[in-house]
Amino acid sequence: LADAAAAGVLSDAGDRLRFRHQLIHQVLAEQTPTAVRAALHAEIAQLLAGSGAGPDAVARHLLAVPGRLDEWAVGWLAAVPEPVLHALPQVFAELLTRTVSAAGGQQEHAEALGTRLALVLFWLGRDVQALEAAGGVAQRSADPVLAARMRILVIRAAGRSGRTEDGLTALVTSPGDDELPLLWRARLGAWSAMLLNQMARSQSVPAGHPALEQAAAQARVALEQANDSGDPQTVATARHVLAMCGDS
């Protein structure tokens, strides 16, 4: 480091060192053989993760590692808190897509990785991919709350992309629905009503049509459950559906 600083390659940056110019950094990186560069990025990522560095720094180095990620990296991705994914959704979408595709749902962390992938894809507006990812988690998960959460994501992605027919699978009740807490029954019911209403409106049915009545009935049940569970967001969702059904 002393030699590099004396040669003007590195300069002081407070209690750290930095390349005097980004071009020097770029040239040195490009002169490093591809295989060596990938191995260095993988090693740096692991060292950063072990030292408690920010997930964004770790993720950027992992992104530079081609092919399948090491097991430690897969476990790290599965453990990244969901709110952190908001910081770099594009980067995490790439890493999670590669990881989930390579494992084919057979790995230890498949459920956590699939959930995170569905979320970042939905945030990025990649609705068709989000729908598929969330649907896969919902079908495989033994956790009724997670399954309900992913079914809601399927409904929202299907509605937002205009593929309402693809959202119908999320409306089919499952044995796990009986185990759902009231709050999640209300949320699933409200978003199901939203999809039913959207499907009816896409067919230009008149007021009082059975399809609209079905959506409104579903929304009324969800509204009652949301009030009982004290979930104001779902209260708002259910009321919104009722208003669209003509129940002003």
Structure description:
The protein is mainly α and 248 residues long. The chain is 67% helix and 3% strand. It is built from twelve helices and two strands. It has a two-stranded antiparallel ribbon with strand order 1-2. Strand 1 and strand 2 (16-19) form a beta hairpin. Helix 6 runs antiparallel to helix 7 and helix 8 packs antiparallel against helix 9. The mean pLDDT is 91.
- The radius of gyration over CA amounts to 24 Å
Mean pLDDT: 91
Helix content: 55-70%
The counted number of beta strands is: 2
- CA-CA gap between termini: 71 Å
Protein topology:
Blueprint: H1 2-6, E1 10-13, E2 16-19, H2 22-31, H3 34-50, H4 55-63, H5 71-79, H6 89-103, H7 110-123, H8 127-140, H9 144-161, H10 182-202, H11 210-229, H12 232-244
Helix pairs in contact: 3-4, 4-6, 5-7, 6-7, 7-8, 8-9, 9-10, 10-11, 10-12, 11-12
Give a brief rundown of this model.
This protein is mainly α. 67% of the residues lie in helices and 3% in strands.
Short key terms for the protein model shown above:
two-stranded antiparallel sheet; 248 residues; mainly alpha; 3% strand
